[in-house]
Amino acid sequence: xxxxxxxxxxxxQFAQHSGIELLKVDAGxxxxxxxxxxxxxxxxxxxxxxxxxxxxxxxxxxxxNSHGTxxxxxxxSTSFVNPATSGTLFAAAEEISLNxxxxxxxxxxxxxxxxxxxxFQGTAYRKSNAILA
Amino acid sequence: xxxxxxxxxxxxQFAQHSGIELLKVDAGxxxxxxxxxxxxxxxxxxxxxxxxxxxxxxxxxxxxNSHGTxxxxxxxSTSFVNPATSGTLFAAAEEISLNxxxxxxxxxxxxxxxxxxxxFQGTAYRKSNAILA
Amino acid sequence: xxxxxxxxxxxxQFAQHSGIELLKVDAGxxxxxxxxxxxxxxxxxxxxxxxxxxxxxxxxxxxxNSHGTxxxxxxxSTSFVNPATSGTLFAAAEEISLNxxxxxxxxxxxxxxxxxxxxFQGTAYRKSNAILA
Amino acid sequence: xxxxxxxxxxxxQFAQHSGIELLKVDAGxxxxxxxxxxxxxxxxxxxxxxxxxxxxxxxxxxxxNSHGTxxxxxxxSTSFVNPATSGTLFAAAEEISLNxxxxxxxxxxxxxxxxxxxxFQGTAYRKSNAILA
Lengths: 133, 133, 133, 133
Known about the structure:
The structure is a homotetramer.
Chain A: H1 2-11, H2 13-17, E1 20-26, E2 29-35, H3 49-65, E3 69-80, E4 88-98, E5 102-111, E6 116-130
Antiparallel strand pairs in A: 1-2, 2-4, 3-6, 4-5, 5-6
């Protein structure tokens, strides 16, 4: 898990560019956070759906790749249930199903008070390649 | 439409931060692009789902707000069908349904060769507020 | 809750036609079941996605209408993670978010052994009409 | 295509039970219809989301299996944009992407006047088995 965490922390450039920090990785699980900055906002002054999604998608990717073989996201569905404007967003990803070829994950995005901001569901296709050389 | 375009170009900070450019707005439609940079990539060396999604979500938001009243994205679903690694991504958003309270939009993300990269479906909830003061 | 249960049990004709039984209703929650019959199967000999979906959608509708005002499903997303061929399917719907106009629900479909068959996410738009006259 | 059409018409029991008729199959495409009966309705007197979904899911399955190898639906997302109460619903499924392992499809559900009732997006996982013995 340390190697997976190191890999994603160092190699996921868009997550870095978006200010996302990987907190923890377990088998089929991942936790990440994003401290909201003014540049995360949209024209309505709330956190951009793209920033919230990127946080969820990153936690999903880490959880899906935590088994050591390459997994690619093929489908995601996101419900945005509450707007956020400041503070910190947290992502908690967990595996709900896994077989040789496919994995399904759910990610909850909450704010610093535990309020649900968005709920994300993602499906990954698993290749046979190892993620780490 | 000029005012809507100006508003989103100037006020959507996360779209700016992600290198997205708004190309055109029509009633219920929007077009945008993203020139792929190394910092748009994920650990697998392909464009991050979060970057592709942000491009789609931005085009969706502009199309949904093109009628002049505030619309908030409540649900999105995205199929990632081909990876992209370099070049330019284009988003084309179109309205598939509209009533007083809800609008549904579809966004196609293609690369510079017209190859489909992702297909996005979004639902927006329409408030009564004007988007521009 | 008794009236809501009675209403859905008696008035939802397609749920009846599909062999679905409403087990219990609470505020924002619902449980239902479907005993798999040969006519629930598709050409591959597994339970049809439409039958699994109808079970989930019914539980979603009951949970969304459990507050007494009319709620209409506007978006659903379903991951089908394991096939089912015989036995009983159970749906458990729970509310993950609620405001005046919108409610979000998650439904887990499991078989008689507790194995996850499908996971469903639904958004409902809430009208001001009472569901019961 | 004649064999695929015959197979789905005869073997998909839940589609039959739901009153769905397969109209036409092409490579990556399918068309089906459902004549609305009182038993397709929900408690609100409109066509049940499960009936509309079953029609869309059936057209998706036929289109995904039209290449002759077994394809299983793994993810679907549906926007319900207009209610229907009587008349005929039509489904038109088309492939938006295809590779060895995955196919993506879009299905439009319209009524007899061409009004959009629902839009469906589905992803199928392709096995190596032939669908017809």
